[in-house]
Design brief:
Elements lengths: L1 H29 L22 H30 L4 H26 L4 H33 L11 H27 L2 H28 L4 H26 L8 H28 L11 H4 L3
Helix pairs in contact: 1-2, 1-4, 1-8, 2-3, 3-4, 4-5, 4-8, 5-6, 5-8, 6-7, 7-8
InterPro entries: COX15/CtaA_fam (IPR003780), COX15/CtaA_HemeA_synthase (IPR050450)
Protein name: Heme A synthase
Membrane topology: Multi-pass membrane protein
Length: 301
């Protein structure tokens, strides 16, 4: 019973964090950031906003962020109580809670004081970390449950430190590119756009190299191979969604394209984070040693 609660809490957290990110895109694209005035948490002095579309969009974003914060807190407490032997799960839940709270505070400060470009970019970047933490938690819980169902964890093959470092660097570099992209969307400065295009091209090559290495050199490790395929598919889709943004600019589909671009970006960074964690684990394990601990055994009876 406790295992099922933890599993579904991790899944629900992942979904709500993604909704927060989506709502943020809608707020930015519609220019609804100040539709509730410079007040927080009230909207023009009321708990329930007016009937204007802009105020409803902004208030929905605030409401979703609030629900995300409460769910993250409940998830953290549940893992602290019921998965005491899985310190890694507790860390993922803690990071998720920390960053969803931080990004909410930054969003509130941006409304009350000013919506400067660096603050809004950080607001998006912290929301991205919160989602990545939620997805890492959900994937880790799912993996632990699958290992438990098999009774015995499979023998793990060691990954080299070089492969591990490339994976971690790819995740960090992806975050840097995403932050630059968020900064460009809020400033529209040409010099930042040039930097973004160069960085995006480098990221494309880097992730393609990482995916090729994961599939060719570590294809015997099932989850590393699958993660390699996923990140390659996402990095190919990312520039295509960027082109779609330009194609539909000014049309009735202008909201769909940035949401798709954000979806791909969020999942790319999150899967790279999970891949980095797995690469770190595998780089520290002698070949053939069984490293994973099933979640059900770690849950307090």
């Amino acid at each position: 019973m406790q295992y099922k609660v933890l599993k579904w809490l991790s899944y629900a957290s992942c979904v709500i964090m993604l909704l927060v990110s989506f709502n943020g895109v809608v707020v930015t694209r519609t220019g609804s950031g100040l539709e509730c005035g410079r007040e927080f948490p009230l909207c023009h002095g009321k708990f329930v906003p007016g009937t204007t579309i802009g105020s409803l969009i902004e208030y929905t974003h605030r409401l979703t962020a609030g629900i995300a914060g409460l769910l993250a807190l409940v998830t953290l407490i549940a893992f602290l109580l019921w998965a005491r032997k899985r310190r890694d799960f507790q860390i993922y839940a803690g990071v998720m809670f920390l960053f969803v709270v931080v990004q909410a505070i930054m969003g509130a400060l941006a409304v009350v004081f000013s919506q400067s470009a660096p603050i809004m970019a950080l607001h998006f970047g912290f929301a991205l970390i919160a989602f990545a933490s939620a997805l890492v938690l959900a994937l880790s819980v799912r993996r632990a449950g699958n290992l438990e169902a098999r009774q015995e964890p499979p023998a793990e093959h060691r990954m080299s430190k070089r492969a591990r470092n490339l994976t971690v660097f790819s995740a960090v570099f992806t975050y840097a590119v995403v932050y630059t992209g968020a900064l460009v969307s809020h400033t529209e400065l040409a010099k930042f756009a040039v930097v973004l295009h160069i960085a995006s091209a480098m990221l494309l090559v880097l992730v393609l190299l990482l995916g090729h290495m994961a599939i060719r050199d570590y294809g015997q490790i099932s989850d590393i191979r699958k993660l390699g395929i996923i990140v390659v598919a996402l990095i190919i889709a990312l520039p295509l969604s960027g082109v779609l943004n330009l194609v539909v600019l000014g049309s009735e589909y202008y909201m769909f394209a940035p949401m798709l671009h954000t979806l791909i970006t969020d999942f790319l960074f999150a899967f790279l984070c999970f891949m980095s964690i797995r690469a770190w684990e595998l780089s520290r394990i002698p070949a053939g040693e069984k490293s994973s601990v099933g979640l059900k055994k770690a849950v307090r009876a």
